[in-house]
Design brief:
- The chain has 428 residues and is an alpha+beta fold.
- It has two domains: 4-200, Chloramphenicol acetyltransferase-like domain (Chloramphenicol Acetyltransferase, 2-Layer Sandwich), CATH 3.30.559; 212-422, Chloramphenicol acetyltransferase-like domain (Chloramphenicol Acetyltransferase), CATH 3.30.559.10.
- The protein has helices at residues 29-32, 50-53, 56-70, 103-107, 159-174, 186-189, 220-232, 241-261, 303-322, 329-346, 404-411, 414-419, and strands spanning 4-12, 24-26, 38-45, 77-78, 84-86, 92-99, 134-140, 146-153, 211-218, 267-274, 288-295, 350-357, 374-377, 384-389, 396-403, 421-422.
- The protein has a seven-stranded mixed sheet, with helices on both faces. Strands 1-6-7-8-3-13 form a six-stranded mixed sheet. Strands 2-5-4 form a three-stranded antiparallel sheet, with no helix packed on it.
- Helix 4 (103-107) links the parallel strand 6 and strand 7 (134-140).
- Keywords: Acyltransferase, Transferase.
- This is Acylsucrose acyltransferase 3.
């Protein structure tokens, strides 16, 4: 296992101080009911041009200082009851770290867990209440490659907001005259009730160390094969790549569960749906609703049937939200979350959590020295499937997290391997 040594640790201050009028950033109801954790993303760059190698940290620090002036809540502190951010310009935490191995040892490891070395050891998925809302780590490998990790508070950022911030930071690093245009106005769409009931907040998730993760790739051609198979055997029309890929991964999970228990257990799969639009695209914060898809028979797990069911659930949610007042959306989202939690607590269903970070540009983040060869996250919760764009082409990468014994079964699942392959990158 690779070890890391902290070279330096500092707080990156804002290039321009936050005006007094923006000192108090009100959190929205969506922010308030979200999981209060740090979401950890990492970007790996194996080949750094010689003219950049000695000044990478300075470029990152300077550009981060400027972009924070536009994303000022990230440099503040959340109050104890999660109702606002004190935008006090404390800054973002920034670590310079030396990793005692070549990058290839990390990204060619069969399990994704090895990437944990590029995150602060105590941080991934930890509480964001008493820690900087943004923590960045620049990791230097023996081979000369680097990794940049960013852990952002999920209380003030969903996946869309995170991708906007990272893209704007990279654009600023390439051109310091670039001016981001985020809007921290989510509370105008999803205001907190006058009397916030803290007991209504969804419980915080704490991943178990027993869980492991591995990344698989669905090539564009294999996704086309999956789509063709689904549409030929059903009345499903125009399935998306995530719909067919998540249906397959879900089916593989059910197969393994049945092999272990000898019987079928109903399932619940959650998908996150971005509410932008109707919310403006540059609105920062949390603007996501969850889709709940359940199966109670083996027949419903079959790919065409599951995709059809998923599409129906998505359309029903869209129809429900279409005529709903925006200030009612958080209450409805909270109700869906509570329904899911009730099912989880009763242990009547196997639960699968699916989220997508596709079409975000994260797979092409260029700070000035080229695009990453790998974008990934730290290992999270059991039966968690996170979909991302692959580094080239129109395929998908999926980060699958489960228990170690289930992951061993995933690795030998013939149906999965017919359409997906483990991701291993060469850094030579």
């Amino acid at each position: 296992m690779a070890s890391s040594t902290i070279i330096s640790r500092k707080m990156i201050k804002l290039l321009s101080p936050t005006p007094p009028s923006l000192r108090c950033h009100k959190l929205s109801f969506m922010d308030h009911i979200n999981f209060h954790l740090h979401s950890p993303y990492a970007f790996f760059y194996p080949k750094i041009p010689q003219n950049y190698s000695s000044k990478i940290s300075q470029i990152l620090e300077n550009s981060l200082s400027k972009v924070l002036s536009f994303y000022y809540p990230l440099a503040g502190k959340i109050n104890n009851n999660y109702t606002y951010v004190d935008c006090n310009d404390t800054g973002a935490e920034y670590l310079n770290v030396r990793i005692d191995c070549p990058m290839s040892q990390i990204i060619n490891d069969p399990y994704n867990d090895a990437v944990g070395v590029v995150f602060p050891q105590d941080l991934p998925w930890s509480s964001s209440l008493n820690r900087s809302l943004l923590v960045v780590q620049l990791s230097h490998f023996d081979c000369g490659g680097i990794a940049i990790s960013a852990c952002t508070s999920h209380t003030i950022f969903d996946g869309h907001s995170l991708s906007k911030f990272i893209n704007d930071w990279a654009s600023t690093a390439r051109n310091m005259d670039f001016k981001p245009s985020p809007q921290f106005n989510a509370s105008t769409f999803f205001p907190l009730p006058s009397e916030t009931n803290l007991s209504s907040t969804l419980p915080t998730r704490h991943p178990s160390k027993r869980h492991v993760s591995r990344m698989y790739n669905f090539s564009s051609s294999n996704l086309t094969r999956l789509k063709d198979m689904v549409t030929k055997e059903s009345h499903v029309k125009n399935p998306t790549r995530i719909e067919v890929a998540s249906a397959l991964v879900h089916k593989c999970g059910v197969t393994m569960s049945m092999e272990k228990s000898g019987m079928f257990k109903p399932t619940l799969m959650t998908h996150a749906m971005n509410l932008r639009p109707p919310i403006p695209l540059n609105t920062m914060g949390n603007a996501v609703c969850i889709i709940l898809t359940t199966t109670v028979t083996e027949d419903e797990v079959k790919l065409p049937n599951f995709v059809a069911k998923l599409q129906k659930d998505k359309q029903q949610l869209r129809d429900k939200l279409k005529d709903m007042k925006k200030d009612m959306m958080p209450l409805y989202t909270l109700e869906l979350g509570k329904n899911a939690m009730n099912i989880i607590e009763k242990d009547t269903h196997d639960v699968y959590v699916c989220s997508g970070m596709t079409n975000t540009g994260l797979h092409k983040i260029d700070f000035g020295w080229g695009e990453p060869v790998r974008v990934t996250l730290a290992t999270s919760n059991k039966n968690n499937f996170i979909f991302m764009d692959e580094q080239s082409g129109d395929g998908l990468n999926v980060l699958i997290t489960s228990t170690k014994d289930y992951m061993l079964k995933f690795q030998s699942n013939k149906e999965l391997l017919e359409f997906a392959s483990p991701v291993v990158e060469s850094t030579k």
